Amino acid sequence: QVQLAESGGGVVQTGESLRLSCEASGGTETFNAMAWYRQTPGKQRDVVAMSTTTGGPRYADSVKGRFFISRDGVRNTLFLQMNNLKPEDTGVYYCRQGRVAGTAWVTDYWGQGTQVTVSS
Q1: Per-residue burial over 61-70, b = 16 or more CB atoms within 10 Å of its CB, e = otherwise
Q2: Nearest-CA neighbor of 20 among 91, 114, 89, 120?
Q3: Minimal CA–CA distance to 33: which of 67, 89, 85, 71?
Q4: Over the stretch 1-59, which tens digit does the pLDDT of each residue have?
Q5: Residues 6+ apart with CB under 8 A from 95
């Protein structure tokens, strides 16, 4: 059974940076899609960055030029580099890895979430 373990969240001030990690373990499935989501209280979980093996990374407008998604295939770890953080970036961040066919997730696995708090 695949498990995703997230780390790297914390409390930072406006303008600082954080790097989130999402390490996959267990199973032998090969992923072709990866994404990071953000959720704030009372709101739905929204995608902030996504990448597939056949397409380049895509970002929510609010994070373009500041957030960067990448993956280390050897370590089976997904990253989200977050620069120039703003208070509106505050939330719980979840990683998602799996396989997509077209735009639909066929299989997916979620991390447990990591809190990011940006103070003004």
Answers
A1: eebeeebbbe
A2: 114
A3: 71
A4: 899 999 999 999 999 999 999 999 997 788 899 999 999 999 999 999 999 988 889 99
A5: 4, 6, 20, 22, 34, 35, 36, 37, 78, 80, 110, 111
23: closest CA among 11, 12, 32, 34? 34
Whole-number Cα distances in Å, 65 to 30, 48, 49: 29, 12, 11
Q: Which residue reads 């409390």 in tokens?
A: 11
Residue in this structure with the two tokens 């895509």, named with its chain if needed: 58
Q: Which residue has the tokens 């580099």?
A: 81
